[in-house]
Amino acid sequence: MRQDQASPEVHQRVRDSFDRQGLMSHLGARIAHIGPGRVHIVLPARPEVTQQHGYVHAGATSAIADSAGGYAALTLFDEASEVLTVEYKINLLAPAAGDHLEAIGTVLKPGRTLTVCLLEVYGVRADGTRKLVANGQQTLIRVNRTAE
Asked: What is the pTM of this model?
């Protein structure tokens, strides 16, 4: 299945913003796909992001889900806009196991002020087997970009 790609300008804006996120860098996460209203973030499973049983920690799982949704919303806004999370709810459905996690944020309802996103996180094994390990919903607010 072919996924639509965002414009080069949107790609650059999202990547530049993502690169400024210290937490994503600290976790070792990377963006795998940027499309209109949809972003995928991949997090390799490493000892530094696990909890005491060896699964990827719920905090790391939630963080990549939150960022995937936020960037999915950002793909639909003009260059003068940024987003902030107002709230999100995440359901941890299964232990976050696999060679990496893939978080997918998808815009369900874009808005002038508030945007609602679907959050999904999959555990992905080396053979490509995928298992849904978390899902949720997120509300974001559009804010004016501040001078840098």
From this structure: 0.94
Q: What digits encode the pLDDT tens for the residues 14-56?
A: 999 999 999 999 999 999 999 999 999 999 999 999 999 999 9
Burial 30-68 (b: 16+ CB within 10 A, else e): bbebbbbbbbbbbbebeeebeeeeebbbeebbbbbbbbb
